[in-house]
Write a structure and sequence with these properties.
This protein has 194 residues and is α/β, with parallel strands linked by helices. Helix content is 36%, strand content 20%. The protein has a single domain (28-193), classed as Rossmann fold (3-Layer(aba) Sandwich). The strands form 2 sheets. Strands 1, 2, 3, 4, 5 and 6 form a 6-stranded mixed sheet that branches. It has a two-stranded antiparallel ribbon with strand order 7-8. α2 (42-56) crosses α7 (175-193). The chain is built from 7 helices and 8 strands.
Length: 194
């Protein structure tokens, strides 16, 4: 799958999903929330790619920033993702897990993060940040993965500009791996329904 671009449209709208959670759907279709925290848009694009793969697999999806999610009513599964900065999740993703901990513990939940500006995320599992790992254990998260990050050349902080000068910029996301991971989630959900 190619790199889905953000045309300035919110992730949920970009996938054609309405923003408000509705009543539970019939048992044969899962309604999956993909909530994310993204600073520069790269993690939002990963969330959109996950959503598209789940949609292709027969799930109904809602992709939106974690800070916009008020309740989890009507969802049968939740995927939560965050950009990683210095090995730490963005506050809005961490707060989402903490705020919805009780509801998340009753649902199948998967986590992803993105951020390594190299190929270190490919081929082996990177651990969750400590605070996130503690919450994940209390929720009973089904799985976690880290995807490579992206650091472009525009709208950068001073620290990010230094990384680019050092040659550490670029796009390390692998959209085939992202799609494959989302398809694994869809298969796990289908197996539970069978």
């Amino acid at each position: 799958m190619g790199d889905p671009t953000n045309d300035g449209v919110d992730g949920a709208a970009a996938t054609g999903v309405d923003q408000a959670p509705g009543p539970p759907l019939p048992a044969e279709r899962d309604r999956v929330l993909i909530a994310y925290a993204s600073q520069g848009g790269s993690t939002a694009q990963i969330a959109q790619a996950i959503g598209l793969a789940l949609l292709d697999a027969g799930c109904d999806i809602d992709v939106r920033p974690a800070r916009q999610v008020e309740r989890l009513t009507g969802f049968t599964c939740v995927v939560v993702g965050s950009a990683l900065y210095h090995g730490v999740w963005l506050p809005e993703a961490f707060k989402f897990l903490r705020r919805h901990r009780a509801a998340l513990a009753k649902l199948p939940v998967w986590l992803f993060d993105s951020g390594p500006l190299d190929r270190s995320a490919e081929g082996h599992l990177l651990p969750l940040p400590r605070g996130v790992a503690t919450l994940a254990a209390s929720i009973g998260v089904r799985g976690h993965i880290t995807f490579g990050g992206k650091l472009g050349r525009t709208d950068l902080t001073v620290a990010e500009r230094l990384l680019v000068i050092e040659g550490r910029g670029g796009d390390y996301r692998n959209f085939e791996d992202i799609r494959g991971w989302a398809e694994q989630i869809a298969r796990a959900l289908a197996a539970e329904r069978a």
